[in-house]
Automatic annotation (TrEMBL):
Organism from which the protein derives: Actinomycetospora succinea
Keyword DNA-binding: yes
Keywords: DNA-binding
Protein name: TetR family transcriptional regulator
A GO molecular-function annotation: transcription cis-regulatory region binding
Pfam family membership, one: TetR_N
């Protein structure tokens, strides 16, 4: 996992902690080891991060920042479902390439972490594209939750399994099970049914300016009731 080059004391400390984390795990990220690797005095770490947990939070945030930048750098696939497949594969690959960092980012993340929420927002936008295409069979929030739960759980399971015992098809099977649960095939008929149509309209509401806020709220509630009826 690459990080931005930052020669400030804070940048050097985060980079040193990340190197120690990736080489030997979180137990190696001690104040003494980080201060030696970063070329700073231990009090500087406490002044900038408060304690070891604060430093680990900063490392996780840096990991999320780099990860989000990589995921949003290229053009999305024209087919939003294929875009989700590619995103899933990239997510699993990142976890297997950087297991200690991944566990810090996802298994040890503090509830409400802004960095974690930013990553979830990237996923929500991908799910929103599927909804706009009329191919989402469940509410967007549920789809995001399913992808996160199964994707993160699958990656953590693979990380915890010795490499020579990993099921090489586990991630693909989990991915396809989730995609089958949340999406429909490309509609062959003009009318794909009420739930995908409602999900598509729900996803397009932010661009609607012909209704008042109260009217938008009422329409949003109706559409949520339709998409939640499955």
């Amino acid at each position: 996992m690459s990080v931005d080059t930052d020669e400030s004391p804070r940048g050097r400390i985060v980079a040193a902690a990340l190197r120690l984390l990736e080489a030997s795990g979180p137990d190696a990220v001690s104040t003494r080891a980080v201060s030696a690797a970063a070329g700073v005095q231990a009090p500087t770490i406490y002044r900038l991060f408060g304690d070891k947990q604060g430093l680990l939070d900063a490392v996780a945030t840096e990991g999320f920042t780099s990860y989000i930048a990589a995921k949003t750098a290229g053009e999305p696939h024209p087919d939003p479902v294929e875009d989700l497949r590619a995103s899933w594969d990239e997510h699993v690959a990142m976890g297997l390439a950087h297991p200690a960092l991944y566990e810090l980012m996802y298994a040890r993340a503090r509830p409400g972490s802004p960095a974690l929420e930013a990553a979830a927002d990237v996923l929500a936008k991908r799910i929103g594209r599927i909804a706009e295409a009329g191919r989402l069979r469940v509410p967007e929030e549920r789809a995001v939750g399913l992808v996160r739960a199964v994707g993160e759980g699958t990656t953590l399971t693979l990380i915890a399994t010795p490499e020579d015992r990993r099921d090489p098809h586990l991630a693909e099977s989990a991915r396809e099970a989730v995609i089958a649960a949340i999406t429909t095939d490309a509609p062959a008929l003009p009318d794909p049914g009420p739930i995908p149509a409602a999900a598509a309209l729900r996803a397009a509401l932010p661009g609607v300016d012909a209704l008042s806020p109260a009217e938008l709220g009422m329409l949003r509630e109706w559409l949520d009731r339709i998409t939640g009826s499955s």
